[in-house]
Design a protein that fits this description.
Chain lengths: ~350, ~350
C-alpha cells in the first residue's frame, strides 16, 4: 500500500481502529478484560442499544431521524409485560394475562403504527421531522406513565423472557439477535434496491425523486422499521430485566445517535454503513465495560464517553476537510447541504 | 377598514401562538375558577422564568440555524457547581467548604457558562464540526461533570442573599418574573433592532448570502453560543433560588421542552425565522397548560401526553401555514434587507 493511501485508509476505518485501540488499552490496564466471558458480556450489553441503532440508522440514511424511538421502546417494553401479567401486587400488570406470543405481536404492531404515524406526519402533512418525533417522544412517554401509573410491572413468563434470558447452545439469545439483525440490515441496505434507494434519498432527495424513487413512501417505511425495532428492543430489555419500568429507555436516544454517528452514519443522510454503526455500538459498550472493570466511578464514565464521542467526531470532521475532494466525494454523491456544517443541517428532510 | 379573506388567514397564522394561548386560558378559566386568579397567573409566570431564560439563549442559536443541546446540562452543572462553591463541606450541606462570596460565585457561574458556550462555538466554527454532535457530546460531558462535582449528592443550605433572585419579590412582583420579562424584551430589541440581531437572521436565512454581504457568520455563531451559555448561568441562579438546593439532575431532559417552547412560539429550526416575543408566547403556553391541567386534577402523567399533542398540533398548523403561504415571508424580508445592504 502506498503511503499516501494509508491515512485515508485509517480514517475510513477509524471506528475499528478506535475499537482495537480501546480493547488493547483495557487489555493492558485490567486483568479480566480479555476474558471470553467479558466479551460475551459486552455483546450482551450491546444488544438493546444495537437493535435501536439499526432502526435509527435506517432513518438516518434517508436524512431523517427518529427521536421518539426511546419512548417507543419504553411503551412497548411496558405494554409487553403489562399485557401478560396479573393485576395488582406483586406484579402490577393489566390482569388480562394475554399469551406472551399475542402480547409480543401487539407491541410489534404498536411500534410499527407509531412509526407509520411519524412517517405520515412528516411526509404527507409536511411537518418538520424534528418536531414530529420530539412531540411523539413526549406524548408516548406520557402514555407509558399513564398506563401503569408509573408502577413497575414484573414478568414471570419464561416465553416472554426468552429473548433476554434465553440461550442458544451457550450463546445468549440477545447476542445472536444483535449479530443476525446487523447482518440482515447490512445486506438490505447494501444489496437491495430498497437499500440503495435509501442512500439516494439521503444523498439528494430531488435527484432520487427525479430518478423514479418515491421518497415519501420510503421515508414512511424507514419510520415503520424504526418503530418496529424500537418495540423489539423494548421486548428485549424488559425480557432481560424481567420487569418494565415506565422510565425505561429514557435519555437513551442520545446514546443511540452517538453510536450511529461515531460508527460513520452521517446525520446529513446518504452516508455510512450498518457495519460501521455496529462498530459504534461496540465501541461505546466496550468503553462502558472497560471503565467499569477499572473501577472508575460511574460519574466519570459518562463524562469520558462524551469526550470520546467528541474526539472521534473531531477526527471525522478533519477527515471531511482534508480528504473530502478525493476519497469521500468519489464514494458518495455530493449532498446539497454539505457546504455549511453549522447550518441546521440535521433537519434535512422537510424543506 | 375592509379586511379581505386573503389577509385574514396569514394574520391568524402569524399570531397563532397568541390565539392558542388565549384558547388555552379561556378553556382553563371555564373549567376551573382558580385558574384566572392573580395568584395562579403569578405562579405560571414564576414557573416560566427558568424555562423562559433558557428559551432566550436557545432562540439566539436557533435564529442563526444552529441549536445548543448542551444548554440543559450547562444549567445543571452551573447550578450544582454554584451551590457547591457557596456552602460548607460535609453533611448536611455537601458543599466544598469554600463558602465563597455569593457575588464571586455568580461571576464564576457566568464564567463557566461562557466557557461552555465558547467551546461549543469554537468546535463548530473553527474545527468545522457538526453542531448536533458537538452540543450532544457536550450535553453528555457536562452532565458527567455535574455528577462528578458532588458525586451525585444534593447540595443544601444555600445563603439567603444568593437565593433572593429566585424567590423574593419587589412589591407584588417576584424578581424572577421581572427578570425574565426584561430579558425577553431586551432579547427582542437586540434581535430586531440592532445590527447584531439582523446579522443573526441573515445568517439563519441564508448563510452564504450573509457571508457575501460582509457578515462574519462564524464570529456571530460563536457569539450566540456564548449568549446561550450565559443564559444557562442566569437560569441556574434563578433555579437555585427557587429550589433552594443544588441537585445534579437539575435541567435533565429539559432541552426537549426548551426547543418545543421556542418552536411552537414560531422560531424556525431552519434559522432566520421567528421572534423572541413569539418564543415568550411558547413558554407561556406550555406553562399555562401545565398549570391548567394541574388545577383540573389531571394526572401528572397525562400532562406530558397532552403537552406532546399540543406541540404536535401547533406544528401541524404551522406546517400548513408554510405550505399555504409558499416561501416564507421572513425569508423575503431578509432578501430585501440583504439587497438594501449590498446594493
Amino acid at each position: 500500500m502506498r503511503f499516501s493511501k494509508i491515512i485515508p485508509f485509517l480514517l475510513n476505518n477509524l471506528i475499528w481502529f478506535l475499537l482495537l485501540g480501546v480493547i488493547i488499552f483495557f487489555g493492558l490496564t485490567t486483568d479480566n478484560f480479555l476474558a471470553p466471558n467479558n466479551f460475551a458480556n459486552i455483546l450482551f450489553n450491546a444488544s438493546v442499544l444495537g437493535v435501536l441503532v439499526i432502526g435509527q440508522s435506517f432513518t438516518l440514511l434517508t436524512g431523517n431521524f427518529d427521536l421518539s424511538a426511546e419512548s417507543t421502546l419504553g411503551l412497548c417494553g411496558l405494554l409487553g409485560v403489562w399485557l401478560i401479567t396479573s393485576a395488582g401486587a406483586p406484579r402490577y400488570g393489566s390482569g388480562w394475562m394475554l399469551p406472551p406470543i399475542l402480547s409480543i405481536l401487539v407491541i410489534l404492531v404498536i411500534g410499527m403504527l407509531i412509526g407509520w404515524l411519524n412517517g405520515v406526519l412528516i411526509t404527507k402533512l409536511k411537518v418538520n421531522n424534528f418536531v414530529v418525533t420530539l412531540a411523539m417522544l413526549i406524548t408516548i412517554r406520557g402514555l407509558t406513565l399513564l398506563i401503569n401509573n408509573g408502577q413497575t410491572a414484573y414478568s414471570i413468563s419464561d416465553e416472554y423472557n426468552w429473548l433476554g434470558m434465553g440461550k442458544l447452545g451457550s450463546v445468549p439469545v440477545p447476542v445472536v439477535v444483535l449479530l443476525l439483525f446487523f447482518v440482515v440490515a447490512h445486506i438490505i441496505t447494501t444489496y437491495t434496491p430498497f437499500g440503495r434507494e435509501l442512500y439516494s434519498i439521503g444523498a439528494n432527495r430531488n435527484a432520487a425523486l427525479a430518478s423514479g424513487v418515491k421518497p415519501d413512501r420510503r421515508i414512511i417505511q424507514v419510520y415503520m422499521i424504526s418503530g418496529l425495532l424500537a418495540a423489539f428492543a423494548g421486548w428485549m430489555l424488559s425480557a432481560r430485566l424481567t420487569n418494565a419500568m415506565s422510565s425505561m429507555g429514557k435519555g437513551m436516544i442520545f446514546e443511540v445517535f452517538a453510536a450511529a454517528v461515531i460508527g460513520g452514519i452521517s446525520l446529513k443522510g446518504g452516508q455510512g454503513s450498518l457495519i460501521g454503526a455496529l462498530g459504534g455500538v461496540l465501541l461505546l459498550t466496550t468503553i462502558g465495560a472497560g471503565l467499569n472493570l477499572m473501577d472508575v466511578s460511574v460519574y466519570w464514565i459518562q463524562a469520558i464517553r462524551g469526550l470520546i464521542i467528541l474526539v472521534a467526531m473531531l477526527i471525522e470532521a478533519q477527515k471531511v476537510r482534508y480528504i473530502a475532494p478525493t476519497a469521500i466525494a468519489s464514494r458518495t454523491a455530493p449532498t446539497p447541504l454539505a457546504s455549511g456544517p453549522t447550518s441546521g443541517e440535521t433537519h434535512v428532510h422537510s424543506n | 377598514m375592509r379586511i379581505t379573506k386573503g389577509a385574514v388567514l396569514p394574520r391568524l397564522f402569524d399570531n397563532l401562538i397568541w390565539i392558542l394561548l388565549l384558547a388555552a386560558v379561556a378553556t382553563f378559566s371555564l373549567s376551573s375558577d382558580r385558574f384566572l386568579t392573580a395568584d395562579n397567573l403569578t405562579n405560571i409566570l414564576i414557573h416560566s422564568s427558568v424555562l423562559g431564560i433558557m428559551v432566550i439563549g436557545q432562540s439566539f442559536t436557533l435564529i442563526t440555524g444552529n441549536f445548543d443541546l448542551s444548554a440543559e446540562s450547562s444549567l445543571g452543572l452551573i447550578a450544582v457547581g454554584g451551590a457547591f462553591l457557596l456552602t460548607a463541606a460535609g453533611e448536611p450541606s455537601n458543599g466544598s467548604g469554600l463558602q465563597l462570596n455569593p457575588i464571586l460565585t455568580i461571576v464564576v457561574m457566568l464564567g463557566v457558562g461562557l466557557v461552555i458556550g465558547w467551546i461549543n462555538g469554537f468546535l463548530i466554527t473553527h474545527l468545522k464540526m457538526n453542531n448536533f454532535i458537538v452540543t450532544l457530546s457536550m450535553l453528555i460531558i457536562v452532565r458527567g461533570l455535574a455528577f462528578l462535582i458532588t458525586q451525585g449528592k444534593t447540595v443544601t443550605n444555600l445563603p439567603e442573599s444568593f437565593k433572593a433572585l429566585g424567590h423574593e419579590s419587589i412589591g407584588p412582583f417576584p424578581i424572577s418574573v421581572v427578570v425574565v420579562l426584561v430579558a425577553f424584551l431586551l432579547a427582542y430589541i437586540v434581535t430586531r433592532y440592532t445590527r447584531f440581531g439582523r446579522d443573526l437572521y441573515a445568517i439563519g436565512g441564508n448563510r452564504d448570502a450573509a457571508l457575501a454581504s460582509g457578515i462574519d457568520p462564524d464570529r456571530r455563531i460563536r457569539q450566540v453560543y456564548l449568549i446561550s451559555g450565559a443564559m444557562a448561568a442566569l437560569a441556574a441562579w434563578i433555579e437555585l433560588g427557587r429550589l433552594g438546593v443544588g441537585a445534579t439532575r437539575i435541567g435533565e431532559g429539559m432541552i426537549f421542552e426548551i426547543q418545543a417552547a421556542a418552536v411552537i412560539g414560531g422560531i424556525s429550526l431552519f434559522g432566520g425565522r421567528g421572534t423572541m416575543i413569539g418564543a415568550l408566547g411558547g413558554v407561556l403556553l406550555l406553562s399555562s397548560i401545565d398549570s391548567g391541567l394541574n388545577l383540573m386534577r389531571v394526572s401528572g402523567f397525562a400532562i406530558d401526553m397532552v403537552r406532546g399533542i399540543v406541540i404536535l398540533l401547533a406544528m401541524l398548523i404551522d406546517a400548513q401555514k408554510a405550505r399555504y403561504k409558499g416561501p416564507s415571508t421572513a425569508s423575503t424580508v431578509i432578501a430585501t434587507q440583504l439587497k438594501a445592504r449590498t446594493g
